[in-house]
Amino acid sequence: MKLQSLACAVAIATGGFFFSHVMNQAIAANNTVAVAQSIQPTQEQALVSRQLATLVDRQHYLNMRLDADTSNRILDFYLDSLDADHSLFLAPEVETYKKNYGATFGAALKAGDLSGPYLIHAQYRERLKQFYSFMLAELKKPQNLKQSNVYIETDREKAPYFKSTLEQQQHWKNMLVSQLINLNISKEEEAAKQKALKADPALANGQDLTSPEDLTPVQTLTKRYTRQLERISRVKSDDVLDKTLNAMLLTYDPHSNYFPPVDAMELNRQTTLQLEGIGVSIRPERGNEDYTKIEMIVEGGPASKSGQIKSGDRIIGVAQDGDKMVDVVGWSSNEVVGLIRGKRGTKVSLRLLGAGASMGQARTVSLTRDVIQEEDAGVRSRTVEIKRDGKKHSFGVIEIPSFYLNYRARRAGTDYRSVSEDTNNALKALAAKNVEGIIIDLRNNPGGSLEEVARMLGQVIKSGPVVQIRDGNGNVSVFEDDDGGAQTYAGPLAVMVNLASASASEIYSAAIQDYERGIVIGSTTTGKGTAQVQLDTLAYGQATLTQRKFYRVTGGSTQNKGVVPDIKLVDIYNEDFGERKAKNALKWDTIPTAPFKREGVVQQYVQPLAQMSQQRVTADAQFQYLEQRKAIAKKTDEQKRVVLNIDLRKAELNALEQKTLQAENQRRAVMGQKPYPNWESYQASLDALIEERSKMKVAKRPVLPEEEAFVTESANVLLDYSKLQSAKPAAQ
């Protein structure tokens, strides 16, 4: 295969998983003057500010100057990064910041002058000190948890800043009451679960289920806020620099990122299949930095192998082997990382809260720290059988976790693995088994090497362009498969995608769709259609900078819009996930079509295929369950304010829990399983299942029925496609 040459950095930097990093939350306090004097940028930090500001001004894809308008936007992003819910800074203070720094923020960064953002950060830390001190004082007072017709907004990202301290502190009081209500409910549900386990030990299924700290809600919050104050002296200049430079880069797009030296090491570890730890990338949750969110899961690591940790999960507790669970709400990401990491072979338990879930739905997952082995992280293949009209039909499944390529090993001339070679071997092995079709599973695949994408497409198409790449000057390059028509596999093909399929995954599925080489099945992909160069020669730390944009051979961008599947199935992800919801994402657009020849006929069959699929899905217990769970999650997400009355809050939560329990029991009935008598037994059994699966090797772990339903349906779609083609030959 002959590949049109592009810069190596572009090939390296196409996948989203290269850019996840641990965002440090800097929380400290002191008087403003003292703090401002105690934390000053170093010469290296000032130099990297000049370097990066100059690069983004001159070399970003948008060709957008660091002028006064851009500077004002940087300041807005910077303030939002510090005070996402607009509850710390007051409106007059924000106006002062805009007057003093707004129009000149970018010019100052280009000059290496960090005094403005460092002063704002010092004032931010002072306000945090006031906030924590206020909350600790209020915790010593009785709090009314049954307030009628009193609500608090749960999403204040676009809310105006408070005009006065009095108005601000009333909001703080309401925050405290809401937190106490949540913790009281959570504690009651945990006690009920422990009671259920005591009454029926079989629910634990022999697993040792770690319980949280035995603290009252007031004690929990007192400990949490006291810990925040204890971290005052631990703020670093890197934390301020991180917030500052990433605010500047976010003004251009969400995938241009700055990485301080510690985070840069994490970035470098993610470029190969080798990683030590549990295999997750974390960062503070936007809008509530008290929570640390799992951003990315490294395939082949302990977290991935457990099958019970998902992107978007919030870490609310960490327990070392044999120790009590430590509440980590309010901890910085660095501190959480410090608790999670440890020696290979040692155990760590995480207390996790899914996106949109209540505290009562928290779950515990135990993991054994390890070095990720390459054989566990790469391509996996298997066969799946379906029955139709009394006959068995066999299909191949190739699970591709990422488009990996160990560049360092290749440069060094040592043995290395690549996803294209592993996939090629899997295609040959499955074809030798005479399967009736092959399903390429790109669900949750975050991307990777563009070079590998091109090679892999060349294995299933004859020849032609596979993706167009446009730079900021309008120049278009093309990656092509030009191997003389050689194909490893030419049979029926389907590609499975979902909202977590990004970047290189979208290039692959888009090409398959455009060539009509196969059927794309699932839900609309992320929409990450940009390429970044990795800047690893900066004076301090590293960065990624968006310089190119991907386009399909038909001319449409994969950016923002993503790849819309031919056959749509339920989207299991929160709607706020993905590029379309990312702040300041680049827009979708088009360029001219690249000359190519379609190699199949799919589109004329899409409508009947979709109708047949919908009939099966509507009657399938697993898809019914997923649709119900999605509806429940959506209802929770749509709730923008909550009442400050514990009885009403309990009633609302109980209603959602009963709907969830009903959905679970409905599918259990279809599967011939005994229903759960109550919510507590369901939660206890779920904790036990999670714990049990976490201890299994991937190859030994039973496939979850709700996940396998997508594979089974994809196989059915391929079979339908074959039958339609046989019944009605395609027009020539």
Note the main attributes of this structure.
6-stranded antiparallel β-sheet; 6-stranded mixed β-sheet; 732 residues; 43% helix; globular; alpha+beta; Pdz3 Domain; 2-enoyl-CoA Hydratase, Chain A, domain 1
Please, could you describe this protein's structure?
The protein has 732 residues and is an alpha+beta fold. Strands 4, 5, 6, 7, 8 and 9 form a six-stranded antiparallel sheet that branches. The chain has a six-stranded mixed sheet with strand order 11-12-13-16-17-20, sandwiched between helices. The longest helix is centred in the first third of the chain and has 35 residues, at 165-199. The two termini are 29 Å apart. 46% of the residues are buried.
How would you characterize the largest beta sheet?
A: 6 strands, antiparallel
Number of helices: 23
Whole-number average pLDDT?
87
The count of strands amounts to 21
Helix % is 40-55%
Structure classification: alpha+beta
Which SSEs are present, and which pair or pack?
Blueprint: H1 8-12, H2 32-38, H3 43-59, H4 68-82, H5 91-101, H6 105-110, H7 115-139, E1 146-153, H8 165-199, H9 217-230, H10 237-250, E2 257-259, H11 261-269, E3 276-277, E4 280-285, E5 288-297, H12 302-306, E6 314-320, E7 326-327, H13 333-340, E8 347-353, E9 363-368, E10 370-371, H14 374-377, E11 380-388, E12 391-399, H15 407-412, H16 419-432, E13 438-441, H17 450-458, E14 464-471, E15 476-481, E16 493-497, H18 504-514, E17 519-522, E18 530-535, E19 542-551, E20 567-568, H19 603-619, H20 621-637, E21 641-645, H21 646-670, H22 679-694, H23 705-727
Parallel strand pairs: 12-13, 13-16, 16-17, 17-20
Antiparallel strand pairs: 1-21, 2-19, 3-10, 4-5, 5-6, 6-7, 6-8, 8-9, 11-12, 14-15, 14-19, 18-19
Helix pairs in contact: 2-7, 3-10, 4-5, 4-10, 7-8, 7-9, 8-9, 8-22, 16-17, 17-18, 19-23, 20-21
